[in-house]
Sequence to fold (335 residues):
Amino acid sequence: SMLMLYANFRNLNLSERLGPSAELAVIYSHMVMTMGVFQMPKWGSWYHRRSLEVAREFDDKSALATVLVGLGVNAVGTGDWDEASQVLEECLELCSQLGDLKQWAEAASLRGDAALLTGDLEEGLERYLDVYGRAERKGSLGHLGLSLRTQAMMALQQNDLSKARQLLTKAEHVLEETTEKLIQIDVSGLRALVEFESGAMAEAYEHLQRAMSLLAETMPPIAYPRIFGLRAASRVVLDMLERSRTTADGPADSRSLQTHAETMQRYLKTYARVFRIGEPAARLHTARMLWLQGRHAKASTEVAEAVAVAQRLRMQPDLAEAQALAATIAGSGRS
Fold:
């Protein structure tokens, strides 16, 4: 990950020496995310503006599409849904004109993720079914995996665990032929949740460990705001930890699960520093850990922050989860 950041700076220096170009516009768009990693939003805004100015100046539509995808990634990651909609819709129209399926699929996937994150599962699924049809024809395995993941999320929402498992298993097979670790995190985290909900504790723990191993390989997060597997893995590790307090027949002891929960907390906080959409999940995880430790006052404060952030970012699934946890914490405080 740090090598990628170094490469971005090196490419920037080389391209700026050669003067404005379509290639420089693309590098400027990469720097928007790089500035997010270093938490320098003012510079990120400058690179955002310059990437569009330079791309439009040279009238290179392919480069402009690449720039728009990069800006869409950043907008989704920061929860700027209006900006995401604007740049991604322009990108989709442009890619349709160019016949650029790869970047069209990237933009459509980002639009789908934005819908999922704000709670519009139907739009998210519709976007991804469109991606799936085109990806299947072109053999784009990464986008096939993403589409299957999204269909599994809908099945999980409907409590159709068997269907969710089938879809995630298919996604695992598709992704075996790729190096798409970020998508694999989503699939492994969601598979862990499906197995836990099914009562298959050993299988849930196996997939949880797989997700955490992949997370360890991809920190700090600098490439793409994948959050779904991270959220699912967070929920599973805390569900297992809570369960371990009352039963000894689980796949791991309470101490091991506590260590996993602390590791997951670090991952979530690291993610949230780069991608603002991770802050509700990070605060939820911390609040629930505090609650399990009996520190109800601090848990109440933390979950209130989770509610506030989720409301501000208009992330309805996180908001609903935060409100439910807030009610649980409040109820335990009265008992």
Observations:
- The first helix runs from residue 2 to 18.
- Residues 294 and 332 are 10 Å apart (CA to CA).
- The chain has a mean pLDDT of 90.
